[in-house]
Design goal:
There is one protein chain. The strands form four sheets. The protein has an eight-stranded antiparallel beta sheet. The chain has a four-stranded mixed beta sheet with strand order 1-2-4-3, with no helix packed on it. Helices cover 28% and strands 22% of the residues. It is of the alpha+beta class. 52% of the residues are buried. The chain has 14 helices and 18 strands.
Length: 482
């Protein structure tokens, strides 16, 4: 069935033939019979860029792979289908007192998508990204058939698949390691008047989760002012709030179950395989003046609170991006783009440069989020195309402007920012990207050649592809379908 699919930010759309394989045999048959435009695998359609788009080709949905097994309390693991969302998983694990060690800002990401992006959360220095918590995964690839991969037994293909953007094959199942939870966190918001103070405060947190919202419109001495939110798990059999921990976990389970419900359908029905409706001509609701007022109010509220800690049910701290379903529509009919960068320690100046450059270009970010990233755990690798590196990551959401001088200024500003990030030894997140220049790819991702070698062994004909793959030449010159 030919439909128009969009990315999550509503900034890109691509016509594709959508299929929904139901089991190993159907997935194998699909890869064997793929035409010249190849196959793109797509979960919930939550990618901010073009990683799950395949213009004029086939897009295979993983929705039939949504089962979640019971928690194995002895090993602390759960076996799940790649089409299950993180909220699906938590709906099973949390009532039993277990949680996923790594959670991004939304529960609507599928497990397969989380693996392909090697997602990280607000606790990366303590828990790394999701790849560090995968015991095994089942992959079907064009050349290798169906294989079970483990980080110890098959490290090459395993780490090429984790963070590999769905280009090594199709993840069918994943066995995830869990950790105990009492269902509560101790959370605090602290207002900091400058970017340096925000960075300093984030650097103090190693045990729990920490994230900073930055006021992307404040400049001068207040450039990068923001609110640092920290959360440390509490509760459980011997911890604080133990009397209510079990009830809290059940409440989280109910909240996660509610998050499993599909979001209101976007104009191009991402991830559903249903034909798109005409995109509504919605106005830009996140105007610069509205964002400035909201930013000032948020900063003032946090400053008035004084950083006092509070005990919060875990369910209330989960998935802030799901609190307002369909929120990308607030950016208007052209949608928005997110520029997410990472730079190593000592290169914090690039963070200030990014904020200042967008302001000078007339496109201050409507949302700016800063987190600290850590190193992989001892004895673990990172995916060869994984985004996180030790240091800092800054995500900047900018409304897509109409064609004209403003759009040209924004494009040039982001190109210059990419150059500065690469020169600082940093990188741009590929799963969030929709505009990076290919010549910077190798500088940003030094593991690119190792990834290409593994991808070529698993998929020598380049059956697995995407608009992202073709735009950046991820497989190298002349590789893959055209």
């Amino acid at each position: 069935m030919a439909v128009a699919l969009s990315n999550f930010t509503r900034s890109l759309a691509a016509p594709s033939e959508v299929v929904r394989p139901a089991g190993e045999a159907e997935w194998l048959r699909l890869l064997e019979r793929a035409d010249g435009r190849g196959v793109t695998v797509r979960g919930a359609g939550a990618s901010y860029g073009d990683a799950a788009l395949n213009s004029g080709g086939t897009v295979a949905l993983t929705g039939a792979l949504r089962d979640v097994g019971e928690v194995d309390g002895g090993s602390g693991t759960v076996d799940v289908g790649a089409g299950a969302t993180l909220a699906d998983v938590l709906a099973v694990t949390l009532p039993a007192g277990w949680t996923l060690p790594v959670l991004p800002g939304t529960g609507r990401v599928t497990v397969g998508g989380a693996v392909a992006a090697d997602v990280h959360g607000k606790n990366h220095p303590a828990r790394s990204s999701i790849g560090a918590h995968i015991e095994s995964l089942v992959l079907v690839s064009p050349a290798g058939g169906v294989r079970t991969l483990t980080p110890d037994g098959s490290p090459g293909p395993f780490w090429a698949t984790v963070g590999g953007l769905g280009l090594t094959g199709v993840v069918l199942r994943v066995r995830l390691r869990l950790e105990r939870t009492g269902g509560w966190v101790r959370s605090a918001d602290r207002a900091e008047p400058t970017l340096d103070r925000v960075v300093e405060e984030l650097g103090r947190n190693d045990a729990g989760s920490a994230v900073a919202w930055l006021d992307g419109h404040s400049g001068g001495p207040a450039l990068g002012r923001g609110v640092v939110t920290t959360a440390v798990p509490v509760g459980g059999p011997t911890g604080e709030a133990s009397a209510t921990g079990r009830a809290g976990a059940r409440a989280v389970g109910r909240a996660a179950a509610r998050a499993r419900r599909p979001a209101p359908r976007a104009a191009t029905a991402p991830g559903t395989g249903r034909p798109a409706r005409r995109r509504p001509r919605s106005p830009l609701l996140l105007s610069a003046s509205a964002v400035r007022v909201a930013n000032a109010a948020r900063f003032a509220a946090a400053r008035a609170h004084g950083g006092r800690p509070r005990l919060v049910e875990l369910r209330r701290s989960l998935f802030p991006l799901d609190a307002l379903p369909g929120w990308p529509a607030l950016y208007g009919r052209r949608g928005f783009l997110q520029h997410q960068l990472a730079v190593p320690p000592g290169q914090e100046g690039v963070l200030a440069l990014a904020l200042r450059a967008l302001q000078d270009a007339g496109h201050p970010p409507a949302l700016a989020v800063l987190k600290r990233l850590g190193a992989p755990p001892a004895g673990h690798e990172a995916g060869t195309l994984s985004f996180p590196l030790p240091g800092w990551t800054l995500a900047l959401d900018v409304a897509v402007p109409p064609a004209g001088p403003g759009a040209v200024r924004l494009a040039r500003t982001l190109d210059d920012l990419d150059q500065a990030v690469a020169a600082a030894g940093g990188r741009t997140s590929l799963v969030k990207d929709s505009r990076l220049r290919p010549d910077l790819l190798r500088r940003m991702y030094p593991g690119l050649d190792r990834w290409r070698a593994e991808a070529a062994r698993l998929d020598p004909d380049g059956v697995m592809t995407s608009d992202l793959d073709r735009r950046l030449g991820l497989r190298g010159a002349g590789a893959g379908p055209c």
